[in-house]
What we know:
2 domains, single chain, Growth Hormone, Chain: A, mainly alpha
Amino acid sequence: MSWLNRIAAPFRGLPRSVYIQATATLINNMGGMAKLFLPLYFREYFNLSYAHIGWLMGVYGLGLLGGSYLGGLLSDRYDSRWIAKLMLLASGVLTLLLAAPLPIWAYVPLLLAVGTSDGAFRPANMRLVLEPVRPEQRAVAQGVYRIAFNLGVSAAGISGGLLAALGYHYVFVAQGIAALLACGWLQWAWREMPCLNSGLAASKASSPDMATGSPWQDRAFLLFVAGQLVILTVFDQMYGTLGLFLREHYRLSPSWLGYLFTLNGLMVVTLQVAIANRVSHWGLLRSSMLGVLCMGGSFTLLNAGQHAGWAIAMMVVLTLGELLISPTWTTIIMQHTEQRQRGRYLGIYSAVWSGRTLYAPTVGAFSYAIWGASVTWWLCGLLALITCALHRPALRQMLAPAN
């Protein structure tokens, strides 16, 4: 049974709050496919042009971006548990409204509100997962969260497809119910547990001059965010230009894209905690650099040939980069914000992850259309090198001991 002990070792000692929030994440994401089917819904029910559909989805992305920062801002002032529950409640009710027979103009404020509530949940949820954990266990806690997230999305992929065959309205109802169930779970699970973080208390514990703790005056962090914006442009191509490339150049059926995403999910579920448990030993700076290089370099493998094996190799390397970056970056942010406005930092960090949907698809499609696939994949490698150049000095400063 020694192998079982080795597997269980990283999970020992994690606070109950980690598993409470991971369970909420799992439940919420089990119904999380509504946004995937919205473009099809608008096309088939309203016969909208692709441009109008893109504009409507951009409204949701704008809400996601603003909501992420808002959620972080609120978590600096109020109990993150209440923020998480309130945003899940709002998301559930608003998503249920998507199934109502509404005029097309009503979807503009509705999608903005849904995006805002979805985005605001993320930094509060992340704070509840990571803040109560000892610094040396934060990467593992992030790994547990990532496993829950991916298991939920995997389940939603199956259920969403089945429900969409019956009608897109059923998908919206399923996601709304999932968000409400996650809210109910948090209400029940937190009923007897003390407050873990109070924004007001955190503010008092911070530097007397709160401006010194502002992320907008933190040059190292802003340089890190600039690099994050660059490499996430690369990462997002797996959701856009990759599918076009596999179809047009590799002559693969659309099902192959599903196979690759399944591979991505299986790797996350099986390897995330093990890798997260090692990043501190490997070094946070080294892990971040390697993750960025894997993420950018993965796409260059597509230029090596036209066999499906290269697509599989690309997804393996890309996922390894994702597995390294996710726990490493969150650990760095948590370590850097010990005496700072942590909610705002997490809000900006989450907003960049969410906000990539506003610019990355456009950048990728422009490059693909103007310069072609081969140049686009080489540019992905170049952007990884640019990110490393931005991140190296920024992370050195962020990881330096406080004076």
